[in-house]
């Protein structure tokens, strides 16, 4: 008996008929509606009675929301692997990680040759497939900057650029029956995908044995390879053979295949809508329940918690991996796992955590926090990993990744209240709200996570119109260090609600935020380039224009120093928006003209477009490039002294990226004591990035320190104690310490500018 402990999946194997091209699309939608997990299609490019499978996959992915799509299996001899890899990555990105690579070495050689493909012997087919795997995975590895070279006998790639990286680690499932192909699965692939109709009694067990031996020899755990099975049958009143009988018989026989033959994915062959509905609505839930009960009784270790010798060797000291609860282990990623490269880094900071936990809700978050308290390593919480400070990753520690909590749900149409999972990105939020004509101010980049920005501040393109992001937050849910799940609002745990809006990362793990969106139509988005030779003069004029502008205008500036082929320039990115209506182009032009007058105009373009087109959905793939040192300051005004200080910072060369963001407007309507973010009179925020902390600290302290009026911590990597008081001026800091003592007295959440609890500070 062999049970690898895979989480069970159920899907369909549909015919890509071209007679009525919408039929396979309808069946794929039915697959999703029936609660199944994947829709797959056979691939015979030489068959004119069939739609092209790749085109169909893309159409079905766009027509569905949840299911995975795959070829079953794609015909490699007629699909060039480098191009196929880019197509797969593109579809995976567009679908949000819903593509799997079912691949075959080829078999019907006469029609393949007739279509211009090669004729290969069985041995050559395996060689070609092995080369194709190297090509595809090389293309997907966008972190490696070196050109891809695979000098194969069948596929030669001689310096191809890598990328794009897919949205997730695309699994490769191979259709195979012969020993050499099975060994290739064990050493290189992610799944075995045979059809039951082609198997004889005992073939599953024999195939598993070959795959398992090859996996072990390659340093892998056999459970790393998912076992899939195409199968057919009929639902009928009486038993007429295998999978020819009532629902109860199907449940019993599929349960046996899962527990005795290790099948983790059952794919129903056929196009009968009633059978698909029954398979999804009755068979699949019952099989899941029966298998789960048997596993509980037998103490089966989930496949995701098992590791081969290579992965075990990569584990880090200070972490008791064996004590991790099973529901967390099921989705955890360790250094030896292939998914590790996609979760170890954040946007600008490289990381090498000892384990990344990916909980699915408050209960698992509480388990994760409790387990982490028993480990002797750093602990970090990640929303989407975009944070400039890099504190959502670490070296050798634990990262609690909240990416699974990414729902966007309207809970009150009248007040435009939206409940957003903290693992969502602002691009996803903007895309979801756009059809309603709603928007929430949310930074300037769609890849930023909701949790980090929504509990720290939120300086966005709609900031002067709507205020800070935290000013729109009306409720939240949080898991505390003790495992409590608390709600916070003006009426429920109001002290916690106050602290969450500005210092949320210090209080616990926020799971969702309820935010009141604004009614915002199309916006005018402007990009200007100005001559910044007179940097201080430019800043003074721009600052005055911004402060005098209507609240609908928010403007950000990036200053670039002189280079060999050009003098210093300023790039302005500005948004003009109106509450409850589309932006008035004439009013926008008038407001933008005041900005253009700040200096010699070198270029300008402006567009009327939805907010979601500016703050757009972005890939979640982070490579950790740069690891910059950063400083941040809030500025009351860009008067002469302040502008000259910024000019001297730029001239020093210590900051290779210098940005000013306009704040103020609606943010000034909130009293300084109303939230833990107390900076309610400043009009600008300044950020500088440098290669080393010491270099930028020296110039920053000398030039910016004297004009600085507070700090926005999300853009700072300097951990000297004075940063905390700059960010939380008294009496805010003392109040935060008291609240911290109530909700996190042991200072568990201390990886991001920790606020010492009052009692701990006194001790």
From TrEMBL:
<comment type="similarity">
    <text>Belongs to the oxygen-dependent FAD-linked oxidoreductase family.</text>
</comment>
<dbReference type="GO" id="GO:0004497">
    <property type="term" value="F:monooxygenase activity"/>
</dbReference>
<dbReference type="InterPro" id="IPR012951">
    <property type="entry name" value="BBE"/>
</dbReference>
<dbReference type="InterPro" id="IPR036661">
    <property type="entry name" value="Luciferase-like_sf"/>
</dbReference>
<dbReference type="Pfam" id="PF08031">
    <property type="entry name" value="BBE"/>
</dbReference>
<dbReference type="GO" id="GO:0016705">
    <property type="term" value="F:oxidoreductase activity, acting on paired donors, with incorporation or reduction of molecular oxygen"/>
</dbReference>
<keyword id="KW-0274">FAD</keyword>
<dbReference type="InterPro" id="IPR016167">
    <property type="entry name" value="FAD-bd_PCMH_sub1"/>
</dbReference>
<dbReference type="Pfam" id="PF00296">
    <property type="entry name" value="Bac_luciferase"/>
</dbReference>
<keyword id="KW-0503">Monooxygenase</keyword>
<dbReference type="InterPro" id="IPR006094">
    <property type="entry name" value="Oxid_FAD_bind_N"/>
</dbReference>
<protein>
    <submittedName>
        <fullName>Alkanesulfonate monooxygenase SsuD/methylene tetrahydromethanopterin reductase-like flavin-dependent oxidoreductase (Luciferase family)</fullName>
    </submittedName>
</protein>
<dbReference type="InterPro" id="IPR016169">
    <property type="entry name" value="FAD-bd_PCMH_sub2"/>
</dbReference>
<keyword id="KW-0285">Flavoprotein</keyword>
<dbReference type="InterPro" id="IPR050416">
    <property type="entry name" value="FAD-linked_Oxidoreductase"/>
</dbReference>
<keyword id="KW-0560">Oxidoreductase</keyword>
<dbReference type="InterPro" id="IPR036318">
    <property type="entry name" value="FAD-bd_PCMH-like_sf"/>
</dbReference>
<dbReference type="Pfam" id="PF01565">
    <property type="entry name" value="FAD_binding_4"/>
</dbReference>
<dbReference type="GO" id="GO:0071949">
    <property type="term" value="F:FAD binding"/>
</dbReference>
<dbReference type="InterPro" id="IPR016166">
    <property type="entry name" value="FAD-bd_PCMH"/>
</dbReference>
<feature type="domain" description="FAD-binding PCMH-type">
    <location>
        <begin position="348"/>
        <end position="520"/>
    </location>
</feature>
<dbReference type="InterPro" id="IPR011251">
    <property type="entry name" value="Luciferase-like_dom"/>
</dbReference>
């Amino acid at each position: 008996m062999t049970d690898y402990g895979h989480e069970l999946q159920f899907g369909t194997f549909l015919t890509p008929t071209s007679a009525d091209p919408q039929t396979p699309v309808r069946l794929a939608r039915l697959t999703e509606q029936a609660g199944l997990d994947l829709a797959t299609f056979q691939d015979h490019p030489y068959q004119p009675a069939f739609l092209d499978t790749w085109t169909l996959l893309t159409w079905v992915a766009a027509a569905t929301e949840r299911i995975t799509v795959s070829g079953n299996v794609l015909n490699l001899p007629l699909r060039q692997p480098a191009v196929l890899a880019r197509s797969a990555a593109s579809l995976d990105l567009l679908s949000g990680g819903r593509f799997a690579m079912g691949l075959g070495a080829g078999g019907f050689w006469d029609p393949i040759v007739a279509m211009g493909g090669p004729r290969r012997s069985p041995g050559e087919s395996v060689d070609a497939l092995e080369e194709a795997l190297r090509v595809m995975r090389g293309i997907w590895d966008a972190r490696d900057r070196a050109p891809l070279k695979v000098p194969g006998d069948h596929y030669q790639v001689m310096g191809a650029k890598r990328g794009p990286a897919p949205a997730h680690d695309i699994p490769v499932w191979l259709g195979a029956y012969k020993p050499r192909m099975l060994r290739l699965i064990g050493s290189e692939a992610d799944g075995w995908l045979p059809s039951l109709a082609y198997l004889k009694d005992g073939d599953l067990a024999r195939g598993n044995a070959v795959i398992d031996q090859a996996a072990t020899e390659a340093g892998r755990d056999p459970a790393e390879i998912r076992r899939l099975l195409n199968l057919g049958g009929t639902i009928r009143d009486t038993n007429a053979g295998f999978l020819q009988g009532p629902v109860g018989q199907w449940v019993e026989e599929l349960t046996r295949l899962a527990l005795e033959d290790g099948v983790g994915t059952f794919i129903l062959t056929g196009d009968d809508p009633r059978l698909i509905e029954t398979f999804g609505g009755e068979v699949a839930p019952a099989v899941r329940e029966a298998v789960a009960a048997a596993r509980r009784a037998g103490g089966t270790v989930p496949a995701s918690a098992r590791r081969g010798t290579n992965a075990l060797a990569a584990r880090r000291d200070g972490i008791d991996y064996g004590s991790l609860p099973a529901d967390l282990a099921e989705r955890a990623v360790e250094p030896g796992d292939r998914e590790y490269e996609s979760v170890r880094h954040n946007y600008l900071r490289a990381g090498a955590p000892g384990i990344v936990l990916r909980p699915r809700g408050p209960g698992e978050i509480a388990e994760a926090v409790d387990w982490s308290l028993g480990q002797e390593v750093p602990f970090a919480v990640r929303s989407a990993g975009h944070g400039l400070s890099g504190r959502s990753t670490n070296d050798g520690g634990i990262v609690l990744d909240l990416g699974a909590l990414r729902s966007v749900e309207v809970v009150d149409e009248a007040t435009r209240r939206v409940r957003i999972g903290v693992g969502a990105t602002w691009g996803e939020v903007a895309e979801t709200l756009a059809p309603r004509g709603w928007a929430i101010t949310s930074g300037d980049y769609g890849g930023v996570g909701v949790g980090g920005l929504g509990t720290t501040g939120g300086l966005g393109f709609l900031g002067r119109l709507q205020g800070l992001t935290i000013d729109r937050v009306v409720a939240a849910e949080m898991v505390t260090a003790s495992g409590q799940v608390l709600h916070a609002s003006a009426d429920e745990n109001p002290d916690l609600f106050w602290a969450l809006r500005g210092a949320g990362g210090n209080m616990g793990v926020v799971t969702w935020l309820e935010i009141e969106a604004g009614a915002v139509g199309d916006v005018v988005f402007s990009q200007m380039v100005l001559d910044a030779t007179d940097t201080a003069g430019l800043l003074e004029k721009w600052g005055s224009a911004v402060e005098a502008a209507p609240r609908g205008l928010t403007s950000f500036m990036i200053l670039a120093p002189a280079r060999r082929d050009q003098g210093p320039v300023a790039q302005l990115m500005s948004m003009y928006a109106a509450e409850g209506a589309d932006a008035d182009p004439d009013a926008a032009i008038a407001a933008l003209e005041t900005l253009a007058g700040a200096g010699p105009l070198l270029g300008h373009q402006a567009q009327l477009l939805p907010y979601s087109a500016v703050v757009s959905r972005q890939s979640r793939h982070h490579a950790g490039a740069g690891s910059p040192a950063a400083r941040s300051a809030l500025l009351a005004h860009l008067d002469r002294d302040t502008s000259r200080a910024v000019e001297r910072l730029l001239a020093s060369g210590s900051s290779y990226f210098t940005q000013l963001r306009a704040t103020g407007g609606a943010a000034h309507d909130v009293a300084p004591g109303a939230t833990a973010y107390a900076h309610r009179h400043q009009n600008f925020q300044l950020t500088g990035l440098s290669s080393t902390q010491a270099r930028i600290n020296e110039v920053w302290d000398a030039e910016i320190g004297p004009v600085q009026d507070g700090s926005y911590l999300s853009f700072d990597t300097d951990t000297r104690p004075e940063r905390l008081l700059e960010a939380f001026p008294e009496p805010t800091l003392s109040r935060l310490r008291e609240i911290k003592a109530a909700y996190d007295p042991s200072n568990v959440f201390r990886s991001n500018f920790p606020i010492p609890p009052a009692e701990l500070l006194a001790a």
